[in-house]
Design brief:
The protein is an alpha+beta fold. The chain contains 15 helices and 18 strands.
Length: 496
């Protein structure tokens, strides 16, 4: 038996012994009146020694450390607001309560009542006058000084990761604040937050492989949404001129440092706006979030200083391929030449049938990693933008942008295609691509075409990856660091 198994067995035996002595290990009658944060704030300006009639605090939390000295002990406990030291004395809480306390372990939850005093070392400490076991833990926490470091174990047991690693807790607190900042930003600009179906009869809004499920009562297959786009645009048609959804979407694709099959997006649509308007709005939004998070528009990401407050660069796809990718503009219209270029540079291109797919694949490899400061790439080909409005300047291009920061694609936006005939032809081309083997191509959505025939005003829309945005604002190198429970292959214990 290894050391951890031995500790678990001893704890389980202790639990049985406590139960035999009629100790309620999981009570639900302790009323918490304060938090650690409340207590620290209450004493921050107090004199070094508080009188016996000082405020009494009632608080609860998980014990993270115990130092026993016979008839007295120091513990450190933590709640959602922070950590605090407490002093537990036999003569203060009574012999019966102290005997119970001596049988407790690191990881147990306790309820404490008492006043505050300063130790000789100057640390504010709770002098416990009443003590109660709130919840007994059966498993030991990881060793104090080494904690939980292995990424595989951290992601699989995120609950332990959150217990042991304060920096991880901070990431997810920041994630929540980022979403709140985005929501308030849009609400202040008269956007309406909505919810659209997560199970859809026809998947749409992006080129991706969907997950398929079956609804027994309806007797039909449904798809987990790959994007909420087509439903949000139906709402614009219905008269909701500014809408947004912070949504969960699902794509049956590989897992990497930037991809998880289940992810969070912000999508928003604004009638009577152009894609240029959304670029302006995006700059404003990101600066707002940065100021809310850090008080500055300058952030650090993986050793780079990202200046969100400076004017963001806007450059065409063709110009970016020339400047960063080293590809002459003339070659971008030469399918065979591009394939030869990709082969000579050992760039694997799987979708070789259409020129636009080849160009964007080369862009992903050659250009994207070099776009560190915020950069809008514009002028995407029609064939890789089936839902985007055609450019008035060139019928082969669309009024579309993608935003890149720190070498990551963060957002995708465009003026929406609202010509039902053009949209139908693009869907038909996507269907042909699917029949030719492209499993990520769009399905035909006849209901959406019918909706467009009722008329959609000129509209611009955008999708922003919340997970990648959180990576940026928390200086996280992997998407798994900002998703509470990332998907992973099962291990033996998960298969039972």
């Amino acid at each position: 038996m290894d050391q951890k198994s031995d500790i678990i067995e001893k704890r389980k035996k202790k639990i049985l012994d406590l139960k035999r002595n009629n100790i309620n290990l999981y009570p639900n009658d302790f009323v918490v009146l304060h938090t650690v944060g409340n207590i620290k704030k209450a004493v921050e300006d107090a004199p070094d020694s508080l009188a016996e009639d000082s405020p009494v605090f009632v608080v609860a939390g998980r014990m993270m450390a115990i130092n026993r000295f016979g008839k007295a002990s120091f513990i450190r406990f933590r709640d959602r607001t922070g950590q605090l030291q407490a002093y537990v004395r036999k003569d203060k809480i009574g012999e019966k309560a102290y005997n119970l306390f001596k049988q407790l372990d690191i990881g147990d939850f306790v309820g404490l009542k008492g006043g505050m005093f300063k130790t000789r070392t100057g640390e504010w400490t709770l002098l416990v006058k009443e003590f109660k076991l709130v919840c007994k833990s059966a498993r030991p926490l990881p060793e104090k000084f080494h904690g939980l470091k292995d990424p595989e174990k951290r992601y699989r047991r995120r609950y332990i990761d959150l217990i042991m690693n304060s920096d991880v807790r901070d990431i997810f607190i920041k994630r929540s604040r980022i979403i709140q900042a985005i929501r308030s930003f849009l609400l202040d600009r008269d956007f309406l937050e909505v919810e659209t179906p997560m199970m859809q009869p026809v998947p749409g809004g992006a080129e991706a492989t969907p997950f398929v499920t079956h609804h027994n009562a309806l007797g039909m297959d449904l798809f987990l949404r790959i994007a909420p786009e087509l439903y949000l645009k139906r709402l614009v048609i219905g008269g909701f001129e500014r809408v947004f959804e912070i949504n969960r979407s699902f794509r049956n694709e590989g897992i990497s440092t930037r991809h998880n099959p289940e992810f969070t997006m912000l999508e928003f649509y604004q009638a009577y706006a152009r894609y240029e308007d959304l670029m302006d709005l995006t700059e404003e939004m990101f600066c707002h979030v940065a100021r809310e998070m850090t008080g500055s528009t300058s952030i650090q990401y993986q050793g780079n200083t990202i200046d969100l407050g400076a004017k963001w660069r806007r450059i065409s796809l063709v110009s970016a391929m020339e400047e960063f990718g080293g590809i002459d503009a003339g070659l971008l219209n030469n399918r065979e030449g591009l394939l030869e270029f990709a082969s000579s540079n050992r760039i694997k291109v799987t979708k070789t049938g259409r020129l636009g797919k080849i160009v964007t694949k080369l862009f992903d490899v050659l250009v994207e990693p070099k776009l560190i400061q915020p950069t809008f790439i514009t002028g995407y080909p029609v064939e890789v933008s089936p839902l985007s409005r055609r450019s008035d300047i060139s019928a082969e291009l669309t009024d579309r942008f993608e935003l890149f920061i720190a070498g990551h694609e963060i957002a995708n936006g465009f003026s929406e295609l609202n010509d039902p005939n053009d949209q139908k032809e693009r869907f038909l081309q996507q269907v042909a691509d699917r029949e030719a083997g492209d499993k990520e191509a769009h399905y035909m959505d006849k209901d959406y075409i019918e909706a467009l025939e009722y008329g959609m005003p000129p509209t611009a829309g955008e999708g922003i990856g919340i997970d990648r945005l959180t990576m940026l604002f928390t200086d996280s190198a992997s998407i798994r660091e900002v998703i509470l429970f990332p998907h992973m292959k099962p291990v033996e214990r998960d298969k039972g």
